Amino acid sequence: AAGVIQSPRHLIKEKRETATLKCYPIPRHDTVYWYQQGPGQDPQFLISFYEKMQSDKGSIPDRFSAQQFSDYHSELNMSSLELGDSALYFCASSLDGRSYEQYFGPGTRLTVT
Amino acid sequence: GEDVEQSLFLSVREGDSSVINCTYTDSSSTYLYWYKQEPGAGLQLLTYIFSNMDMKQDQRLTVLLNKKDKHLSLRIADTQTGDSAIYFCAESITGGYNKLIFGAGTRLAVHP
Q: CB burial class (10 A; 0-12, 13-18, 19+) of residue A67?
């Protein structure tokens, strides 16, 4: 079965640079969620989209923005990167805005040097 | 408020049962989940339980929910070395679009 696809899988950036992470949900899924997992930490919810509209917002820094496109893929844009942004970024998708099953992608490991 | 707590570490012998515990505080939790994360890997949904259920069994996995005490447990029967991983308890609450609130994760180590 098709799963959530994230690209790139690994990304190395320097401080103050920008990064764009992409997420392709499971086919027919219309809801996308972004989570950040720091080293040794639990995943923290950043933001979610349902039918291309932002549906919920968590602890996402103002330096980050995200959107969902007409084909339901989503991009997380991160600017003015800081060392503390180094983490594993997960995307998850689900079917309809109130689905109770979220399927996670493999994650993008961002390292800021 | 939203808070999910788990013990951080559990060590068991291969073939024994493992029980991983979790407590949550949000009384409006609708679904409670168990995710598995192997080293360097993503989050795998193991099982979930709706908050009006007491128990759910799925092959070697048994989930018990005590709503009164807001306590959730995951029992893994006949634990194998391949079960070594971090297990995250998570809750989703009514309202919003089902963002998940995770616990800190329990690292399960299985030894021969």
A: middle
In this complex, do B35 and A104 lie within 8 Å of one another by their Cβ atoms? yes
Which chain B positions have a beta carbon within 8 Å of A92's beta carbon?
Answer: 43, 100
What Rg value do the Cα atoms of chain A yield, rounded?
A: 13
pLDDT digits (tens, 9 = 90+) for B16-74: 999 999 998 877 777 899 999 998 788 999 999 988 889 999 999 999 999 889 999 99
Least CB-CB distance to B31: which of A41, A55, A100?
A: A100
Per the CB < 8 A criterion, the answer to whether A48 and A84 are in contact is: no
Angle (CA) A6-A50-A3 rounded to 5° is 30
| Pairs of residues, one from chain A and one from chain B, whose beta carbons lie less than 8 Å apart | 59
Q: Which amino acid is at A53?
A: M
Q: Residue B12 contacts by C-beta under 8 Å, 6 or more apart in sequence?
A: B18, B79, B108, B109, B110, B111
Residues of chain A with pLDDT > 90, as a percent, come to: 85
Inter-chain touch A102–B97, beta carbons under 8 Å = no
For residue A68, give the 3-state DSSP assignment: strand
In A1-113, DSSP assigns E strands to: 5-7, 10-13, 19-24, 31-37, 44-50, 53-57, 64-68, 74-78, 87-94, 103-104, 108-112
